[in-house]
Design a protein that fits this description.
153 residues, eight-stranded antiparallel beta barrel
């Protein structure tokens, strides 16, 4: 279970870094530019919901997920010049992960588009709904969907 959780979380964070990172107009940049942090309570809830039912009912699993999520620091900085930087730091099963990805973004209407390049050099864009300084990014890996909600700080 721990190995599967580590693999899932590592994949989700890597993919999120790819997708969360398009030039931006000045008005849109002014309204959405800023520092965003992942909502840890919602992330924990989503992780628990993604677990097999038997594991999700195990108090030790809930405690482990809680400690893992509390130790995470996942931030996204959308800069007024249309560039973006996503940073993720966490420890999973004794392994420390520290990742920074750069990209671009734009806001048109209520749609936030973020573009980033993976380690393979492939560019990927993700477009999400943006409202009141909050947006949620969904990623699917291995048939499993994971959502991360970010709030402007």
């Amino acid at each position: 279970m721990l190995r599967a959780m580590k693999k899932m979380l590592t994949g989700v964070v890597s993919a999120l870094a790819l997708t969360l990172l398009a030039a931006c107009g000045a008005n849109a940049a002014a309204s959405a530019a800023g520092h965003y942090e992942v909502d840890k309570a919602l992330l924990k809830e989503k992780m628990m919901a993604a677990m097999p039912a038997a594991n999700a009912k195990d108090p030790a699993a809930a405690e482990m997920v809680g400690k893992m999520v509390e130790g995470m620091v996942i931030t996204l900085d959308l800069k007024a010049d249309g560039t973006a930087t996503m940073t993720s730091k966490m420890e999973v099963m004794g392994q420390k992960m520290d990742n920074t990805e750069n990209g671009t973004w734009k806001l048109e209407g209520g749609k936030l588009s973020m573009t980033g390049k993976g380690k393979d050099g492939k560019e990927e864009t993700k477009t999400v709904d943006y409202k009141d300084g909050t947006f949620t990014v969904e990623h699917e890996q291995g048939g499993q969907k994971m959502q991360m909600t970010f709030h402007k700080k």
